[in-house]
Amino acid sequence: MSGVDPFILNLTVFVLAIFVGYHVVWNVTPALHTPLMAVTNAVSGIIIVGAMLAAGPQEMDVGTILGLVAVTLAAVNVFGGFLVTQRMLAMFKKKGK
């Protein structure tokens, strides 16, 4: 693998991840969307923990700033995901008189 340009390798992995992710998400049956949202919220929670570790050092450098941005975006994602999941679960509840 020493003859392969790292940029081309990373670009290939990125494009394949987009392709696989697209097909995985669009082939999920509607009954599985709510559990899928719960799993993505859990993954975002893990991202928040990692980003807080990256944003933790005292000196302000690029890693700290990117960690802060990651914490903010992941927190917004988790909050929005829980709102969407709550709304989807409410659609399945029986309406009372």
3D structure, described in words:
This protein has one domain. The chain is mostly helical. The mean pLDDT is 77. The chain contains three helices and no strands. Helix content is 76%, strand content 0%.
Give me the secondary-structure topology.
Blueprint (H helix, E strand, L loop, with lengths): L5 H21 L6 H23 L6 H30 L6
Helix pairs in contact: 2-3
Count of all domains: 1
**Intertermini distance:** 67 Å
- How many individual β-strands? 0
Unreliably modeled segments: none
Calculate the mean pLDDT score and round it: 77
Strand percentage? under 5%
Based on CA atoms alone, the radius of gyration comes out at 19 Å
Class from secondary-structure proportions: mainly alpha
Q: Describe the largest sheet.
A: none
Helix count equals 3
What helical percentage do the residues reach?
Answer: over 70%
Order of helices and strands: HHH
Shape: flat
Which short descriptors sum up this protein?
single chain; 97 residues; mainly alpha; 76% helix; flat
Short description:
The protein is mostly helical and 97 residues long. Helices cover 76% and strands 0% of the residues.
